[in-house]
C-alpha cells in the first residue's frame, strides 16, 4: 500500500459523520438539562449571576482587571453608546515571590497598587477630584459617591461563585500557591486592599472570560438581537449562554446565592470542555486515547482534548509518528534519493519535535491547512523548520495535509455539536425562517476560530446536517469574532451588576 493510501486510512479514523454528530447534539442537550438541575454532572452548567446582556447603547467609563496567570492587566473601557468603545490598558508581571506569598494581603495589595498606578497615569483628573472631595467630606460620603468606578474582576482560577461579585477560591493553579487565600472571597480581598488605598472603585463583578466574550459580542453586534452564546475555541474551549431562570432549578438549593430576578434570565457557564467525560458519544482513536492516558488529567476534559488548540498538535504528532513507524507507509523515509524530487534522501533529526510529547504546536496545523502552493512547498519548509524533517517529498507533504485536514475538520464538527445543542435547547427554532432581525447571534474568540483556515465554514457545514437547524437555519445563525472578553466583557458585566444594584 502506498504512503498516501496509508495516510487516507489514518485520516478516515477521524471522520465524524452526520449520524454521530446528531447523537452528540442529543447527548449534549441531555447533559445541559441535567446540569441545570443538579451539581456534579459532566456539564457543570455554572450559574454566573449575570442576568442581562448589553445591546450596544450603554455608555460610561468602567474598569476591568484580569488575573489570568503570571501577568496582571488593568483596563479602562469607555463605552460610546453606539456599539463602539475605546480601551486603555497596562500590563505588569506578577513577581514570583507574590505567587507563593504567605498571606493574601501581599498579592492583593500589589494588585490594588497597580490599579492605583493605572488611575494616576490614565485618569489622574478623576482620581485627584476624588481625593479633593474625600478630604473635604467625611469618608463615608466619598465612598458612596456616584463618581465611583465600577470594576469587573476576571479571575481565571477555580472559584465557587455565589453572587455577581462573590466567589471563594477553591484552589490555586498556574504556579500560584497561597494557602491563606483558599476558601476566601477573592472580590472581598481585592476590595479591602482598594479601600485601604482610598481608591474610588467598587469591585462590582467576578468575571469568567467566556461570559465576557458573550457580553463583548452582545455590545458590538449589529442589529437588535442580543447575543445567545459566547464561545472560545483557542488553547482551551468553553461556552456560556443565556438561559431562562426558570430552567436553572439548582439555584433554589444553592445556599447564600444572591441575584437579580427581574430579567427572568441568567448567563450559564457550561464548562463544556468536560462534556461526555464518560465517552458515551465522543469519537475516539488510538491517538486520542494515548494522549489522554499520558496527560496530566486522564479521563477529564475529554471534549476539550478533541477540539482545542492545546491538543490538536499533539494528536497530529501521534498520527504522524505512527505513519513514520509503520514499515508499510514509510512517511519521511525515502529508500533512495532518486524517488525524491529534491534528489536528497529525507532525514528526520534525532532531536526532532516529532519524538517529543507536546512537540507540535497547533499553529503548524493552520500553516499546513492553508498551503496551496505547487508541490506543497510551504508544508515541506515548515516540516524542516519545526520538525527537523529535511528534504520531505511532495508525497510526504500530501500525507501530512490529509491528516491535518481530518483532525481540523473533526474539531470544527465537534465545536458545532456544542453550539447547535445550545441553539436548539434554548428554543431558537431557526429552521422555521424569520425576518431580517430574527437571527441567533453567537460571539466567538480564540486562535482556532480566528486563524485556522475554513474553521467556521466546517462548523456551518455541520449545522446544515442537524435536522433542527438545516440549511435555512444555518443562514440565520450569525457568528462574529468577539475580542477581549476579560477586558471589555468584564467592564460590561460590571455595568450590568451596577445597574442591578440600583
Automatic annotation (TrEMBL):
Please provide the record's keywords in A-Z order: ATP-binding, Glycolysis, Kinase, Nucleotide-binding, Transferase
Q: What is its EC number?
A: 2.7.1.-
Q: Which InterPro entries match?
A: ATPase_NBD (IPR043129), Hexokinase (IPR001312), Hexokinase_BS (IPR019807), Hexokinase_C (IPR022673), Hexokinase_N (IPR022672)
* Listed pathway(s): Carbohydrate degradation; glycolysis; D-glyceraldehyde 3-phosphate and glycerone phosphate from D-glucose: step 1/4
Which ranges carry the Hexokinase N-terminal domain? 9-219
- Highest taxon above the source species: Eukaryota
Q: One Pfam match, by short name?
A: Hexokinase_1
May I ask which residue range the UniProt record assigns to the signal sequence?
Answer: none
- Record's Gene3D superfamilies? 3.30.420.40, 3.40.367.20
What PROSITE patterns does this protein map onto? Answer: HEXOKINASE_1, HEXOKINASE_2
Q: Which residues form the Hexokinase C-terminal domain?
A: 229-496
Q: Which family does it belong to?
A: Belongs to the hexokinase family.
For this protein, the record's PANTHER family field holds:
GLUCOKINASE-1-RELATED, HEXOKINASE
UniProt-recorded name of the protein: Phosphotransferase
Organism, per UniProt? Lepraria finkii
Lineage here is:
Eukaryota, Fungi, Dikarya, Ascomycota, Pezizomycotina
